[in-house]
Amino acid sequence: QLVDVNRPDSFLLLFSIEAAMFLVLAAVVGTVRTAGSPALQGARPAEGGRGGVRALLGHKAMVQLCVLGFVLFFACYGQFESGLAAYGTEAAGIAPSTLGVALAANTAVIVLAQFLVLKFVERRKRSRVIAAVGLIWALAWIIAGYAGLGHGSQAMATAAFVSTYALFGLGEAMLSPTVAPLVADLAPESMVGSYNSAFALVKQLALAVGPAVGGPMGASLHGPYIVTFVLFSLLVTVLAVRLGKQLTPVQNQPSLAAKPSRIVVRHQPEKETAAAA
Question: Which CATH class is domain 68-255?
């Protein structure tokens, strides 16, 4: 809403606000105090005595999750500010200010849906939740296709484009309590950091490749762009179903276990733990 492409000083104002908000963030983070993680002291080594990259690559479920993660971040997160934005302005005729509204709708859905979604996913299989996200995102891409290729009114195109970002937000809210805990639960206790680092690397690669591929396609190859990412979203569903076959029942559905997922377990002082035992 602040930016005017004909006034460079409007970008200066926006970037100044962004810089100030990062200073606010730094101040807030500086006040955070976190508990230690004594449970990881003396952790068991990886199975079979192996560690590092070799152990990770030998873990079939983790490899499949990394492939799935790459497709997830390539087909959604990697398109928000590049291919999808270019497609919206070039094919759907969306104004930059409307693009800002769409991004705000995405964030609003995440904020409003996260608590309801958490209750929805906590007793369901993680693989099925991820598969459902693929279907939701496929629908989002189809709606985006209507916005740019449906030849409807500008009002309908705008509503469809905003709805696309909102549906992406719903999928993001479903993934947040699902994928990251799954990475931690797949890892041997001594390799939690390595597993999370490997998945973060896959994520960053997808976020680098996504704009490089999606940007030019979204700006000029409108039809192929939509078809490509509808197919990638459906691929998310297929990969999630296959991943589910590699997971143990508890890894796929932590509510089956008496002990909560490692990533959300609450640390207890030693005396309390001993008393509980």
Answer: mainly alpha
